[in-house]
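FIELD: query
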Amino acid sequence: MSKLDKSELRSDYSEDIVRRGMAETGEGKFLGLEEDEVGPWDVVILPIPYEMTTSWMEGTERGPAACIEASSQVELYDPILPSDLPCGLSFHTADEWASDAGTLKEQLESIREYVQPWIGESFPLVLGGEHGILPPIIEALSRHPVLEGDLGDLTLVQIDAHADLRDELNGERFSHGTAIRRALDLGVGKVIQIGTRAISREEAAFSNGDPRVETWFARDFLGICEGEAGWSRLIQSLDSIEGPVWITFDVDGLDGSLVPSTGTPVPGGIAYWAAVEIVERVFSAPKSVVIGADVNEIAPGDEGPLTEFNAALIASKMVSCHIALLLSEKGE
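FIELD: result
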């Protein structure tokens, strides 16, 4: 039997088929969707390829572009929506953040200025980039209409393998390992950490001494002993969140088998469907409103596109949850 030439076989049947996301109108756009050129937009994707303080595996500066490319392979159907994404709403993938600033402080200020115009105008979904992007995002959030300058009303839901509560890491106070500590310094009212399994003695002491920090260690809701009861307590806590919420999702919070390409991988993480349930619960908490989110620490490597694809799945789920609430408010 002669060997088939796959390119010739395709040409007979697929001449007019263009892979979603690679057509001219959707190339480089989140989920490969065609987008309106003029706003206002309901959802804005903000790619921030920032990498200045990585302490182990590098590559997070390539994360946003890789996640957007992988998102073209994500199914547009979500059972919580009445039709496929974008479900009649408008999306906009902004140009990548870029800065030629010479200092770390100036780079972070540039990120704040990049994010600021979108706060309160659309639902911002930030793609990183290392976790050090969080403090300037939080600074920008202080201008959100529902906060009116008071970050004390904000709950930060952090899915992450690490506590990120150090006061400094390798001599730097504005590091990926200090992101949550700096957010608290800015006045964030509450942090709910989910999936923590790598924490220093300093961070543990800080967490235990600060009533604003609520930590859910992975072993306490995923372990063979406490798992079921711990999971139930976690869900009850998420259901009781009140007020404005920002979700910061470090992909290393997931189990390492799902995200092999990340800056600081840690075993024993959150399974995919558990992560989906966590995201859905935060969005559906009856007394809270999610005003934006970021997905960070995507570091594309030689392991294939699994990490960026799973990050795109999580990002897509966040968008679906936001849209579901918008449609519910409209009675649709």
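FIELD: remark
The domain at 40-329 is CATH 3.40.800.10 (Arginase; Chain A).
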